[in-house]
Amino acid sequence: MTKEETIELFNKYVIANYGRLPRVIVKGEGCYLYDSDGNKILDMFPGWAVSAIGHCHPKVVEAIRKQAGELLHIDNTFYSEPQGKLAKMLSERAFGGKSFFCNSGAEANEAALKLARLHTSSEKYKFITTEGSFHGRTFATLTATAQPRHHEGLLPLLPGFVYVPFNNIAAMEAAFDDEVAAVMVEPIQGEGGINIPDPNYLKEIRRLCDDHGALLICDEVTTGLGRTGKWFAYQHFDVEPDMITMAKALGGGVSIGAMMAKSEVAATLVPGKHASTFGGNALVCAAAIAVIEAIEEENLIENANQLGKYTMQKLAELKKKHFIIDSIRGVGLMIGIQLNSPGQPIVNKCLERGLRVNCTQGTVLRLMMPMIVTKEQVDQAIDIMDSVFSEG
Ligand SMILES: *Cc1c(COP(=O)(O)O)cnc(C)c1O
Question: Whole-model pTM?
Answer without folding.
Answer: 0.98
